[in-house]
Amino acid sequence: MKYFLLSIFILIFSCNSLDSQKTKSKSKEDKNIETHKFSETEFSNFKEYLQSNHNITPKDTIIIKYEFNKETCWDMLDLEDDDYIHGIIDGRQKEIDKFNLLHKDGVAFRIREEGKNFNKVVSLDKRIIVDKSSFLRNLIFKEKNNCGNTAIILKDGTYYLRKTDPHFDIIQVLNKSKRHD
After folding, report:
1. What is the 3-state secondary structure (H, E, C) of the chain?
2. What is the rounded CA–CA span in Å between residue 132 and residue 43?
3. Which tops the pLDDT comparison, 7 or 123?
């Protein structure tokens, strides 16, 4: 299962090969994808943070969509009424729930930076976890990008960081794949 998730991700986003240090992608298609690897201590601290602070059991594949304070990605939707926004939020959550159900060796969730300046799509979603200590912001999501970032973390401590990810696309793609656990 873990190799399946990795191969789908690589196929879809055309990532470069793994390196033990940060590797910026070169081609036009994957310029917003970076490959990183945690040190053993960082990876241990990361897993402990998820378990202790958010009751999330680390699995072979962890997919995180991170939202930043004071971004403008979904500002146009702020003109819509709250019922419309809740429909969007519910649709996103259904995709996350479907992924978590279908992929027993993986876990996906959304988290946001602490703050009060979010558009409705983020501020009205009470299921988004708050990174109160900025632990993940400082460890993985160091560079703020409009529309948030997504990280796919593998069990060996390698992770792929996708900058500017408005739709959390990887979840939808994996949910449409034919092969599951």
Report:
1. CHHHHHHHHHHHHCCCCCCCCCEECCCCCCCCEEEEECCHHHHHHHHHHHHHHHCCCCCCEEEEEEECCCCCCCHHHHHCCHHHHHHHHHHHHHHHHHHHHHCCCEEEEEEEECCCCCCHHHHCCCCCEEECCCHHHHHCCCCCCCCCEEEEEECCCEEEEECCCCCCHHHHHHHHCCCCC
2. 19
3. 123
Q: Write the pLDDT tens digit of every residue in 139-162.
A: 999 999 888 999 999 999 999 999
So what's the pLDDT on residue 166? Answer: 80
- Which residue in 111, 104, 109, 124 sits closest to 170, CA to CA? 109
Triad 116, 122, 125: Cα angle to 5°? 110
Residue 111 CA to chain centroid, in angstroms?
8
